[in-house]
Design a protein that fits this description.
Layout lengths: L1 E5 L5 H12 L15 H13 L3 E8 L2 E10 L8 E8 L8 H16 L3 E6 L4 H10 L2 E12 L2 E11 L5
Parallel strand pairs: 4-5
Antiparallel strand pairs: 1-2, 2-3, 3-4, 5-7, 6-7
């Protein structure tokens, strides 16, 4: 059974392994193609997030082992504190099994508990499976950010998608 829970510092190694594996897939799903980050850095990050009211990291876990990750961060500017950015990754073995949808449900729950009214994300234009998930959940394309990121030194576009939480029924 898959459970959704807040990430813990003890998840650092599994999350680094997940990020590294997803980053090295042929689909080019993540910005990084090397190691996600070091295990000590990930552990420090998870500890810091647990103390920060405007950010959260959740994991989808099976038998206690993380197989999906959801990161959320509220915008710090006073005019856009009602907006939070999210990042999502799921192990290849568990895609198209409801894990992404369960993590998005958690994002909506977190947003409601913190007063966030809009969730945003960036996705590569070639990541059609993720775009399909987000659109089926209610996210809408708000635009394309040309050359938004450098991936292995080359500029790549990102589609900006958003979900207005007041629109959910």
């Amino acid at each position: 059974m898959i459970t959704i829970r807040p990430a813990e510092p003890g998840d650092a190694q599994a999350l680094v392994e997940l990020g590294s594996a997803v980053g090295q897939e042929d689909g080019s799903w993540l910005l990084t193609t090397e190691q996600w980050r070091s295990i000590p850095d990930e552990r420090r990050y998870l500890r810091a997030v647990r103390r920060h009211p405007d950010a959260a990291v959740f994991v989808a876990a099976e038998d206690g082992r993380p197989l999906g990750r959801l990161s959320l961060s509220r915008d710090v500017h006073p005019a856009s504190r009602h907006v939070a950015d999210l990042g999502l990754m799921i192990a290849e073995t568990h895609r198209r099994r409801g894990v992404g949808r369960a993590l998005l449900d958690q994002a909506v729950t977190w947003a409601a508990s913190t007063g966030v009214e809009k969730l945003e994300l960036h996705v590569f234009p070639w990541n059609e499976p993720a775009i399909g998930l987000y659109e089926s959940y209610g996210f809408e394309r708000e635009g394309v950010r040309r050359g938004q990121y450098l991936r292995d030194g080359a500029p790549v576009d990102a589609i900006l998608m958003a979900l207005l939480l007041g629109d959910r029924s």
